[in-house]
Amino acid sequence: MIFDRQRQRLLLQGKEYTAGDISRLVAEGAENCPPALWDLYLFLEKWFDASPVITVHTSGSTGTPKGLVVRKDRMMQSARLTCEFLNLQAGDTALLCMNLRYIGAMMVVVRSLVAGLNLIVRPASGHPLSDIEEPLRFAAMVPLQVYNTLRVPEEKARLEQTDILIIGGGAVDDSLEAKMSALPTAVYSTYGMTETLSHIALRRLNGDTASKHYYPFPSVELSLSAESTLVIKAPLICGEVLQTNDIACLYPDGSFTIAGRKDNVINSGGIKIQAEEMEKRLRPFIPVPFVVTSVPDPRLGQALTLLIAGQVDVRELESKLQTVLDAYHRPRHIFMTESIPQTENGKTDRAGCRILARQMKKLHPLMFAGTGSDVGKSIIAAAFCRIFRQDGYRPAPFKAQNMALNSYATPEGLEIGRAQAVQAEAAGVPCHTDMNPLLLKPQSDRTSQVVLNGKPIGSRGAYDYFRKEGREELRREVCAAYDRLAQKYNPIVLEGAGSISEINLREVDLVNLPMAMYAGADVILVADIDRGGVFASVYGSVMLLTPEERKHVKGILINKFRGDIRLFESGVKMLEELCGIPVVGVVPYYKDIYIEEEDSLALATKSLQAEQGKVNIAVVLLRHLSNFTDFNVLERDPRVHLFYTNNTDELAKADIIILPGSKSTLADLYELRRNGVAQAVIRAHREGTAVLGICGGYQLMGQEVLDPDHVEGEIERLPGLGLLPVSTRMTGEKVTRQVNFQLLESCRTVVPQGNSSPSNFNNQPSASHFQLKGYEIHMGSTVPVEGASASPLNRLESGQCDGYIVDRTCMGTYIHGILDNPEFIDFLLEPFAGKLSEAAETFNYRQFKEEQYDKLADHVRQHVNLPLIYKILTDNN
Asked: β-strand 67-71 against 93-96: which pairing, if any?
């Protein structure tokens, strides 16, 4: 045995390699190297380096995978124990056919280095013996690889020519063990884990010495904890006593058996059921792969659940199990799935099975309706989207009809309300028009643009829109969208609009109780206690519903509570007695959680003045301002102070002025010229203030805005602010799309002049350069005026150009969300580096948003009766 790593040589498929050979192979690169060999070279490079330790990864079969730092000398001691036990000698062939991220595969290589074995390498696949020519002395596989090999006669014949096979990475079930009983190969099941550097015990599966017991190596000491879990002391390979989660039984001869993992115990109504033991009992009755897992249950705590990969007759199976299992051990749920979740190295992914079972357990749809507008329905819905995601479900938001200027482009390039995009983000799923099939974008006090399934279909006055005529056509569209969504996600989190009890609009309502009744949703009525009158608003809302509508209201949620919640305990009882409906929670008002808001009422809470000591960024407060969520990231960035204003004195104090998006560019341009803001922006820029225009703001910065087709209104032409040499013409076709792009300021040399088609680019960058993301929602086309050269700010992944830049103090873009990219904010702030403290760091908005969704979910969890809500969502009464 060779334990000096610098003296070790790897005998690889008959050829010897030194540490220097490996360094040379890695330096040559992976271009012409098979992936399995390249992974081996990278592992060997780390093995031969000066570090005494190396990082290995746990499989994640019972939880989140993690990296462990282990000592190389202890790995060599573990290799010695196995080689001596199996009598492996120099020159013996050994097969590497597993993933080198994990300890099992690493130890195959280390055994080869220590004992001088001849290593044969094959990719980590389900059929590792499919093309092996030479007989093998030793092979290590996971159960799935062995199972697959035995099903193919040619591969089984090659396995029979292998002298020794060890099986690790998962339990060997009785049926697989029976298939190997007649093999001439000496087959062993291993017991061990990443922390023990592969196995510390073996049990023979066939031959005269076959046993149900594992026998540890001589240097290993075993004992049991108070919970009957195995405790391992293996000083040669593990520096500390290891407390496992494996429930074991020790025998006088030092051997042991494993019943299963402590964390795989299912507590169902107080009866503790070991998942692995149940699988052994059920295996004779289920001819296809399956796993025993659990789902939450409001009565039992955990409900025993079967996941079956394949088709069986469920009624026949249930009938059989009734005869062999008592009531406490019978599965409460049986779900069919295409496959059982597995980790990368072929183990059953127990955590993944629990998640999949929860996703397959259908919950009722849940609607959050309100006693009025702005009671917090959108935020509560977002919180539950994140809660359901955290609890292992695959939720999706839905709002049949939304009215908002803040919209968002879906991956398909269609338009939905921003609130549903935020809720989808909280749920961890891509946003889609089915989540908000009907969007109304106000154009004036009486008219709105109607967006159906992501596309504008025209403008409607309020009176025309809410007439009965044509209403059923819209109802069919929103119901069809819901049906499509419900086929993909579980549960659907619906949001109502305004008040639940606008009785004058009952017959034309698409979004509240009629939608809930169509979906079969359980309704939670949300009331805002902060505005006062909560008893009257809740009781009145409930009493104004019809008896049939009232049946669907299953709970009341009091939102935005300030003060000591204990003082409202009597109020909760009163509400429940008045309405006959349980109060499912009282959620306190919060100030330290930041979720993007859709309603422009939120602008009333924004800062309106400049502030000393930071980079001051002023957003011009347009009358028809849209997509103000573009600036949420700047509100959180500690390097800047963001404020909204149309006060000309405050604009003069700004370091950067941003002209935002507008739903009515010409009307806002007219207003800016009338109230003096246009002149104030031009004057500020002349005195050194940077100006950035986004979407409508970009159009405002040009030489002119033309609307000869009256897309926006009666004004056909207005001169712009003249800051950019571009002209905009309004068009009836709306551009909505998500975009990947790169900032061109860093590669000015490849910016085209004139025509911006992809064919005019030289030195085209690869897709990896287009790391910035955003979206476009605009009507109108902007081009350089006659005589002006093209100077785009960005290049899209499609090859098209976007925006215009004169210099670092004057630029415009059509891309919403451009400020969500830290790279662009750094670019924007760079000219003002002198005002930034040395400790200032780039703000990661994406990470910040994820943290805020989790904080919101935690906040709501603490103050709602979640078991009651789950009971409501699973109760069939």
From this structure: unpaired
Tell me phi and psi for residue 842, to 5 degrees.
-60, 140
Residue 759 has pLDDT above 80, yes or no: no
Cα–Cα distance, 490 to 566 (Å, whole number): 34
| Count of beta carbons in the 10 Å neighbourhood of residue 567 | 9
Could you give the CA distance from residue 568 to residue 854 in angstroms, rounded to a whole number? 27
Tell me if 303 sits within 8 A of 294, measured CB to CB.
yes
Q: Alpha-carbon distance 699 to 781, whole Å?
A: 9
Q: How far apart are CA 862 and CA 875, in angstroms?
A: 23
Tokens representing 295 are: 């789902």
Maximum CA pair distance of the chain?
A: 99
* Distance between CA atoms of residues 811 and 792, nearest Å: 9
308-335 average pLDDT score: 88
Distance CA 344, CA 714 (A): 63
Reference 552, options 379, 367, 384; nearest CA is: 367
How distant is the alpha carbon of residue 658 from its chain centre?
32
Q: What kind and span of H or E run contains 680?
A: helix 677-686
pLDDT over 70 percentage in the chain: 92
**Between the CA atoms of 29, 31, 37 and 38, what dihedral angle is there, to the nearest 10 degrees?**
40
DSSP single-letter state for residue 599: S
The one-letter amino acid code at 19 reads A
Q: How far apart are CA 168 and CA 197, in angstroms?
A: 12
Q: Is the pLDDT of residue 285 over 70?
A: yes
Give the global pTM: 0.58
Omega before residue 491 within 30° of 0, cis:
yes
Q: Pick the most confident of 162-166, 171-175, 294-298, 336-340.
A: 162-166
Angstrom CA distances, 216 to 130, 188, 201, 256, 536, stand at 33, 13, 4, 8, 72
Positive/negative CA dihedral, 154, 155, 159, 161: positive
CA-wise closest residue to 122 among 111, 130, 134: 130
Q: Is 566 helix (H, G, I), strand (E, B) or coil?
A: helix
CB contact burial 38-54 (16+ within 10 A = b; e otherwise): bbbbebbeebbeeeeeb
Active-site residues, by number, are 695, 816
One-character DSSP codes across 442-509: ESSSSEEEEEETTEEEEEEEHHHHTSSTTHHHHHHHHHHHHHHHHTT-BSEEEE--S-TT-GGGGGG-
φ, ψ of residue 585 in degrees (nearest 5): 175, 155
According to DSSP, residue 314 is labeled H
Determine contact, residues 370/525, Cβ cutoff 8 Å. yes
Whole-angstrom Cα distance, residue 699 to residue 728?
A: 6
* Structural contact between residues 528 and 534, judged by C-beta atoms closer than 8 angstroms: yes
Give the phi and the psi of residue 723 in degrees, each rounded to 5.
-85, -25
Residue 138 CB-density burial (10 A; 0-12 exposed, 13-18 middle, 19+ buried): buried
